[in-house]
Amino acid sequence: MNLTPERLQRIKDVTDQRQLGLTVILENVHDVHNIGAVMRSCDAVGIHEIFVLFTEPHLDEERLQLGKRSSAGTRKWIDVHYFRDRNQCFTVVRQSYSRIQCAMLMPEAATIWDMDLTQSTALLFGNEHDGVSPESRALSDGAFYIPMAGMVQSLNISVACAVTLFEAFRQRTAKGYYGEMNPTPTEFRDKLLESYLSRQDVTDFGKDISVNETESPSK
Question: For the segment 53-107, what is each residue's pLDDT rounded down to a tens digit?
C-alpha cells in the first residue's frame, strides 16, 4: 500500500477527531439517497458508525443498497450496522451509547439547542412519511425537535439529521472534543487508524450491505 505523506496525515487527522460517543439510528428510511446523505453528514462531524433498522416487510425483503453517487467515498469510512429486529438493534446500540434520543415533535420534546449533545448519544430518525414509530419511541430515552419559523414544521430526513449533527459539532467543538479534549480513548483511535489504513485497498466503495453486516459496534 503506497500512501503519500499528505494522505497518511489526512487519515490520522480524521481518526483523531472521531467521536466515539455520537451516532445515528435510521428507522425504515426508504430512500437510499437520504441514507447516503446522512452518511456524508456523519463523516463530516466525526461519526464512525451508524445503525440502519428495517422492520417494514417490504424493506425487510430487500438488500440495502447505497448508491455510488450518494455514498461512494463515505461508505469506506463509515461502518453500517444493519438490523431487522428492533429490540436487537436497541440492545446493541445501548452497549456503546448511554442514551437514545428520537426526533419527534411532541410536547415534552427538547429543542436541539437545549440538548446536551456532548453526552454519549444515539440520535434516532424515522422515515420520510411516518417519522419514528411508536414502538421505537417507547424504547427511547427522550425526544427532540428542530425549531422552525415556517408554515411547514418538517424537514427532509437527511437535512434534519445534518442540522442536528452540526449542532452536536458546535457543542463538542466548544468543549475541545475535536482537539486535545477528545474523550475517545487513544486505544480506540489507534485501532480505527489501523482499520482505515487497511481500507485503502478497498475499491468497491458502493458495495451492498447484506444482512450479515450486523457486527457489534466497537466498544
Answer: 999 877 644 445 544 444 456 778 999 999 999 999 999 999 999 999 999 988 8
Q: How far apart are CA 36 and CA 72, in angstroms?
A: 8
Distance of alpha carbon 107 from alpha carbon 140, whole angstroms: 16
Half-sphere exposure of 202 (CA within 13 A, CB side): 15
- Going from the N-terminus, what domains does the chain have, and what CATH number goes with each? 20-196 (3.40.1280.10)
Calpha distance 214→54 (Å, rounded): 12
User: For the whole model, what pTM was predicted?
Assistant: 0.86
34-45: pLDDT as tens digits: 988 999 999 999
Non-local CB neighbours of 198 within 8 Å, separated by 6+ positions: none
Q: What is the dihedral of CA 92, 200, 38, 174, to 10 degrees?
A: 90
3-state SS class at 24: strand
> Looking at the predicted structure, is the pLDDT value of residue 208 above 60?
no
Burial of 107 (0-12, 13-18, 19+ CB in 10 A): exposed
Secondary structure, 3-state, 89-143: HHHHHHCCCCEEEEECCCCCCEECCCCCCCCCEEEEECECCCECCHHHHHHCCEE
Closest alpha carbon to 92 in 129, 139, 126, 55? 139
